[in-house]
Design brief:
heterodimer, A: alpha/beta, 8-stranded mixed β-sheet, 4-stranded antiparallel β-sheet, 11 helices, B: alpha/beta, 23% strand, membrane (chain B), ABC transporter ATP-binding protein (chain B), cell membrane (chain B)
Chain lengths: 324, 331
């Protein structure tokens, strides 16, 4: 197994909010609680779960874009979770992010060349004379012709903009990229192009990805390991085979069962396990195991005590009282 | 084949641009049988939503129907005036939109929103409509239905709001329910609940459903027949099993191949369709898919292919492609 590039220990992010018509009530959103896992060099680790489960918060907290409430993020022997912006700056070269919406992440007044060149100039990675050549190489890397450097974002399609966002992330030769729903806004035929591009770039530059997504079919296709989150906590984490072929947590099982398959005959006869009810509010998460209000096999213990996050063997982690 | 409920012929829709009108829907033919569920599949901008919105005169400004007909119950929907249409909208045809947050009235209690079509179309008294509203909420599986009647939309979760939208769509026992990407904004476990709900209701109420989606995997388990749209035209129309077993149009084949499948053996790369769909107003001459098509020939770049039965047989499987027949025979 590859060594860990990033080590995440008991990472927490709580957001204070004010409720009521006049903001008179203080409350806390428990967006992420006690997440511990390693991100291995060169792997694609995916985080899946439903909206509000804390998967994007996890990505933001690792990059210190949201300052963690507690816990550690170890990168090159140092806990970057406590770094201020000035100390983070050189590290941001290594740790990049691509967002979901390619329409709002590019500055509409900057040409594609300016957008891609900005991080290079900021980190002083090359001279002004070398810059155009470097931008052209980056655009070629993401499959765009060099003449696109003179264009503006509104002249590009969604898929092309997402390629630009990737080129921008690649500009300062990062080791690690968080892909935060980076393909979710794209049409199916374009989505496949971007997935293939991500895989090509990983091979070429030895990149490590934290891939945040809700589309399980895509996750299954590209991941080495998968983490499943529910309401701010990790429910299960393991290799793709462990999580997809042998899911342990009842929530993972329900999630897999809800994914539709492009197979009409199979779909008609398939026995689905349909979860009842909705995800509870992260403002007031259930006591004990946060899944117990919807869990088909919840026991008395699940209501009172938080299940321990443990390795069941061979790196297959789970947090569930019912798993032996 | 069962009796036809809705028959759309040669529907053309234009959008007004600075450079003059641009065609966004170009001569669409489709039909829905009684009790049938039709899936309309396509990517953003292919005209799948506009086609259905145009039937009830719900098109946004600057977009208008330029030609065609839509026969429903012996009358052409496209020729009806507003008063006549009002009797059909929400009455004989129910509509469920993608985003329940913006389609529900935020300052109206959901009980009143449910009662509105009942009072309007069924001339029910307020008390009777309220009682029926409670029953409808129960029908769509909202727990504590009677208490929820006085709730406002913001007090409900996304899945609950979508159930309310479906209940409103069903309020007057419509012959046809049009659902425009009703689960796209929802999480996968909630999506499974809604799909299950619509399947059950369809069986119990015997209505026809048109389900608009971009998700081929989702529609596989739901539709009887599927129409695949590309750049404002129907490129393929087939019973669901045939479409998945024997896709004939290169675009349909490309779409199916680009879906990562859970059960499939791991392959490093997905097959993808190069390029992007044409913009309205810049549609190529000939087949709209020709510029992206791996099989395109000279004829494809000059002549628009007609939607015709596959292999010239009397089959419900129809495809609009010059080369499909030959390719299917060779395969």
């Amino acid at each position: 197994m590859s060594p860990a590039l990033l080590r995440i220990e008991n990472l927490k992010k709580h957001f204070p909010v004010r409720l009521g018509a006049f903001g008179e009530k203080a409350a806390t959103v428990y967006a992420l609680d006690d997440a511990s896992f390693d991100i291995l060099e060169g792997e694609t680790l995916s985080l899946v779960g439903e909206s509000g489960c804390g998967k994007s918060t996890t990505g933001f907290a690792i990059l210190n874009l949201h300052r963690p409430t507690a816990g550690r993020v170890i990168y090159k022997g140092e806990n970057i979770a406590v770094f201020d912006e000035a100390r983070m700056r050189p590290i941001r070269r290594d740790l990049q992010i691509v967002f979901q919406d390619p329409y709002s992440t590019l500055n509409p007044r900057m040409t594609i060349g300016e957008a891609v060149g900005e991080p290079i100039l900021f980190h002083k990675l090359c001279s002004k004379a070398e810059l155009p050549g470097r931008i052209e190489r980056l655009l070629a890397d993401v499959g765009l012709p060099g003449r696109f450097a003179q264009r503006y974002p509104h002249e590009l399609s969604g898929g092309q903009r997402q390629r630009v966002a990737l080129a921008r992330a690649l500009a300062c030769e990062p080791k690690f990229i968080v892909c935060d729903e980076a393909i979710s806004a794209l049409d199916v035929s374009i989505q496949a192009q971007i997935i293939n591009l991500l895989l090509d770039l990983q091979e070429k530059y030895g990149l490590t990805y934290l891939f945040i997504a809700h589309d399980l079919a895509v996750v299954r296709h590209i991941s080495d390991r998968v983490g499943v989150m529910y309401l701010g906590r990790l429910a299960e984490l393991g290799t793709r085979e462990q999580v997809f072929a042998d899911p342990l947590h009842p929530y993972t099982k329900a999630l897999m069962s809800a994914v539709p398959e492009a197979d009409p005959a199979g779909e008609r006869t398939r026995q689905r396990q349909i979860l009842e009810g909705d995800v509870p509010s992260p403002l007031d998460p259930p006591s004990g195991c946060r899944f117990h209000t919807r869990c088909p096999i919840a026991m008395e213990k699940c209501r009172s005590s938080v299940p321990e996050w443990r390795d069941t063997g061979a790196g297959h982690f789970v947090a569930c009282h019912a798993v032996p | 084949m069962s009796e036809t409920l809705l028959e759309v012929k040669d529907l053309t829709i234009e959008i007004a641009t600075r450079r003059g009108p641009a065609t966004v829907v170009d001569g669409i033919d489709l039909h829905v049988g009684k009790g049938e569920t039709l899936g309309i599949v396509g990517e953003s901008g292919c005209g799948k939503s506009l086609t259905m919105l145009s039937l009830l005169k719900l098109l946004p400004n600057k977009i208008r129907v330029a030609g065609g007909s839509a026969m429903f119950g012996g009358r052409d929907l496209l020729t009806l005036n507003n008063k006549e249409l009002r009797a059909i909208r929400g009455g004989r045809i129910g509509f469920v939109f993608q985003d329940p947050m913006t389609s529900l009235n935020p300052v109206m209690r959901i009980g009143d929103q449910l009662a509105e079509p009942l009072i309007h179309h069924r001339a029910m008294s307020k008390a009777a409509a309220r009682q029926r509203a409670g029953e409808l909420l129960k029908l769509v599986g909202i727990p504590g239905a009677e208490q929820r009647l006085d709730a406002y939309p913001h007090e409900l979760s996304g899945g609950m709001r979508q159930r309310v939208m479906i209940a409103i769509g069903l309020a007057c026992d419509p012959d046809l329910l049009i659902a425009d990407e009703p689960t796209t904004a929802l999480d996968v476990t909630i999506q499974a609940q809604i799909v299950d709900l619509v399947k059950g209701l369809r069986q119990r109420l015997g209505m026809s459903v048109v389900w608009i989606t971009h998700d081929l995997a989702l529609i596989a388990g739901l539709a009887d027949r599927i129409c695949v749209l590309y750049a404002g035209t129907v490129v393929e129309d087939a019973p669901v099993d045939q479409l998945f077993a024997e896709p004939a149009h290169p675009y349909t084949r490309g779409l199916l191949a680009s879906i990562p499948r859970m059960g499939a053996p791991d392959s490093a790369r997905l097959s993808s369709i190069g390029g992007t769909p044409p913009e309205p107003g810049r549609r190529p001459a000939g087949c709209p898919f020709a510029p992206r098509c791996p099989l395109a020939e000279d004829v494809c770049r000059t002549t628009v292919p007609a939607l015709a039965p596959l292999r010239g047989e009397a089959t419900p499987h129809r495809v609009a492609c010059h080369v499909a027949n030959r390719v299917m025979e060779a395969a």
